[in-house]
Amino acid sequence: MGQLRNRLKTLLLCAVALAGGCQLGQSVAGNKVSDDKVVQLHEGLTKQEVSNLIGSPSARNPLGEDVWVYIGQDIVRPPFRMPVEKSRTVLRLTFLDGKLADVQQKSLEDGNRIRPMRSRTEIEGLSLSLVEQIIGNIGRFQGQPSPR
Asked: What's residue 99's pLDDT?
């Protein structure tokens, strides 16, 4: 009887451990700015005031315009499957003379889904066999004289 009870406990413990590993995972990636913070942004704020309000940007434009970009994503990770992006927000802030001049916000629905092409570009040398590559390199390389 005691042995059966121990086996049932072990089986129950294994079932709980397996079920715990199958839970739906959700995470936030990047710098997701809440809507109540976006509402507080207005023209004329300094970079320091913006930084104090919503934090450091995900990216800054190193060339040309003085632009800060905040990118945040909600990602759901179902067990045994690929992660799924549930939402994305992109907040683009443009500064002129150190002051906030423009605020633009985009979501996942505003983006375009692209499908990567599966075609391949042939590169010289990839179609050669091993023997052709070896024969083609004969005489190309000359050994360096050894120092005496």
From this structure: 94
Distance CA 8, CA 4 (A): 6
3-class DSSP assignment, residue 7:
helix
Give 40's DSSP letter: H
**Looking at the whole model, is its pTM more than 0.70?**
no
Q: What is the pLDDT of residues 104-133, one digit of tens each?
A: 999 888 888 788 777 877 666 566 777 877
CA-nearest of 73, 66, 56, 111 to 93 is 66
Distance separating alpha carbons of residues 108 and 110, to the nearest angstrom: 5
Pick the CATH number of 23-110 from 3.40.50.620, 3.30.70.1110, 3.30.10.20, 3.30.1450.10: 3.30.1450.10
User: Average pLDDT in the 82-109 region?
Assistant: 90
Amino acid at 22: C
